Amino acid sequence: MNCRLTALLAAAALAIAPAPAGAAERSVVWSVRGEHNTVYLFGSIHVLRPGDVGLPRAAQAAYDDAERLVMEIDMDDPAVADPVAMAAQMQRQARLPAGQSLESVLGSDHAAVASHLQEAGLDIAMFDGYAPWFVGMLILQLEVAKRGFDPTHGIEQQVADRAAADRKPILGLETPADQFAVLAGLSLAEQKRFLLMTLEETEQADAQLEQLLTAWRTGDTATLAQVLTEEFEEFPELYRPLTEDRNRAWVEQLADLLDDRDDYLVVVGALHLVGRNSVVDLLRQRGYRVTQH
Question: Around Cβ 54, how many Cβ atoms within 10 Å?
Fold first, then answer.
């Protein structure tokens, strides 16, 4: 999961391209030195177009140096690799309590959501037993696919495929159930707001994409952090559990990795690594020296 509604499209829908000629080469890769090892942090893009393969230079160097990989979820897990099993697990967690329906939760906004789904060839009645967050995620996935992007070509999948070929083990910071629980933990009113914000922001997504893509390509962490801050201020009930709470949990695990002797490449959504209380910021607060490449 990425951390911003449009970033779920934009940071996920990144077509890798070189920085402008003459620009100082920066990337969304950082390194942290432990006593006996190095832990690299790489801000990922979850989906890409089929032709957009290959890691940025700094990420490739970090991958080559690392003996082990860490991702948001364990891409070695057969259940994670099976999209049918993942979808079934997500649907189980997305069921509304008995006696409630999507129509009753959405109220007067039901028609607008139904119209958006109808444009995609879907009948909202299919989702009447599901929570608003589930429908919001479905719409985000549809918008990504409409723009030609596919998670099978994303950064995580590229890294996982290389790791399988190179026999490098992958660890997970959390489980898919943990990720689904973040949105499922919102109140129904907050879930409805998430869904309606998704509809609103997908209408503006194309205009917002280029700003985020350029920032990612050039390692412009200030712009990425500004984007996240604006969204956090607008919807803290969503972004605190999506970003800060998860970052804090991850940093506890990364601190343990820094006591190891193996080098690690940690691959997480790019917006987890920028701004206040990001993984990078929290590590620095603990006294670690974190260097951007």
Answer: 11
C-alpha closest to that of 269 among 282, 260, 280: 280
For range 154-164, the mean pLDDT: 90
Give the strand pairing for 38-44 and 29-33.
Answer: antiparallel
> Is 272:281 a contact under the CB 8 Å cutoff?
no
Which amino acid makes up residue 284?
A: R
Domain count, the chain: 1
In 3D space, the residue among 149, 118, 169 whose CA is nearest the CA of residue 9 turns out to be 149
**pLDDT of 166 above 60:** yes
Residue 2 within a domain: no
Q: Is residue 202 part of a domain?
A: yes
Spatial contact of 130 and 216, defined as CB atoms under 8 Å apart: no
Residue 221 falls within a domain, yes or no? yes
Longest dimension (CA), the chain: 61
Model pTM?
A: 0.87
CA angle 158, 254, 260 (to 5 degrees): 95
- Domain assignment of residue 142, yes or no: yes
Which long-range contacts link 185-192 to residues 24+ away (Cβ below 8 Å)?
185/241, 186/133, 186/237, 186/238, 186/241, 188/100, 188/105, 188/131, 188/132, 190/237, 190/238, 191/105, 191/131, 191/132, 191/133, 191/136, 192/105, 192/106, 192/109, 192/132
Using one digit for the tens of pLDDT, what is the confidence trace for 210-224? 677 778 778 888 988
The range of the structural domain enclosing residue 91 comes to 7-292
Amino acid at 71: M
